[in-house]
Amino acid sequence: MRQLFDLTPISLQFSITGVTMKPVIEVRELTKVYPNGFKANDCLSLSALEGQIVGFVGPNGAGKTTLIRQLLGLLRPTEGKVRVLGRDPMKEANTLRGMVGYVPQMPLYYPALTVGETLGFVLRFKGVRGRELVRRRREALAQVGLEHLVNHSGYQLSHGSMRLLLLAIAICQDPRVLILDEPTSMIDIVSRARIHRLLAKERSNKCILLASHDMNEVRTLCDRIYVIASGRFIAEGTPQEISALVKLPVEIAFVPAVPSGVEELLRTKNISFEKEGPVFHVAFNDLPQGIEFINDAQRSTGLNYLHLEAPSLERAVLQLLQEAKHE
Description:
This protein has two domains: about 1-245, Rossmann fold (3-Layer(aba) Sandwich), CATH 3.40.50.300; about 250-310, Alpha-Beta Plaits (2-Layer Sandwich), CATH 3.30.70. Helix content is about 35%, strand content about 25%. The protein has helices spanning about 65-70, 95, 115-125, 130-145, 160-170, 190-200, 215-220, 240-245, 260-270, 285-300, 315-325; strands at about 1-5, 15, 20, 25-35, 40-50, 55, 80-85, 100-105, 175-180, 205-210, 225-230, 230-235, 250-255, 275, 280-285, 305-310.
C-alpha cells in the first residue's frame, strides 16, 4: 500500500500539542471472508481521532460498506481487531448504539410517520423528553434544511429528503462518532453545501468517517483519506499527499475573451489543445508551465473562465485504482 506514515497499531496513542489522544476508531489487520469464500476486506488497518473527518474512497464493491458494518457491530470480522471508543462493537453493541450515529447508503424511513414524528420517536427511544426533545428536533431539522417538511409523511419525501432525514436522525442524538455512507448521494447542490458546512462544524467534538464517491467532498472535508480497492487499502494520507503520489499533468480548462486570439497563441507556442464549445483544454508537465501559459493568455486575449487543479485528487485516485487493478 502506498502510504505516507506507518499504520497505527491498536495500542498507540497520539500526542498533539502536548495532549495525548487515544484514537476514537481503531482497526488492526481486519479481514472479512463471507461463507462463499469472497474476501470483502483484506488486512485493513486504520485509526481516527476526535476532531477528524476520515474518508474512504473506492469503486462500488471495493469493501467500504463491509468495513462500516463491522465498525457498527453488524458483521463479525473473520480476523483482526476493531475498537470504537475503546469498545469491541460485537461485544458491546448496546453501549455503542448510544454513542454512534449512522447514515446508511440506502434510504430508510417510516412511510406513515411525519418527519417530525420520526425524529420524536428516535429521541424518545433514547430517553429524551419534553423541551429537550423539542429543542433537539427543531435544531436537527434546521441543520439539514427540512423545517418546511416537518409535517410531511415519509412516503411523501423525495429520495434526497429521505437522506437528509437520515442525517437529522443521526445528529439529533448528539453521538460521539458519525459514520456516513455516501450521505450526499442524489442530494441537490444547495443541500450538499449545507451538509458540508454542518459536518465541518460537527467535527469539533466528534470523529467522523465518510465513505464517498465525490472527490470534491472528500478533498474539502477530510483530514485523511484511505483509498480502497478489492478489499485492500492501496493508499492513505491527506488529500494533498494522495494527490502527490502519482505524477500527473497539470490540466487547465479556460474560456478566452477572444477565441481566435488564443488559438493563434496556442499554435504559436506549439501547445496541443482540445475544445468543447467555448471551453479550451490544455495540459502541461508541471505547474510553472501552466501558470506561465495562463499569464500569456490573460495578457494576449483575456480570460472569462479558468479552472486549474494541480495536482488533481480525482485523477490521482483514478490512477491508483487503475494501477491496483492491474497488479
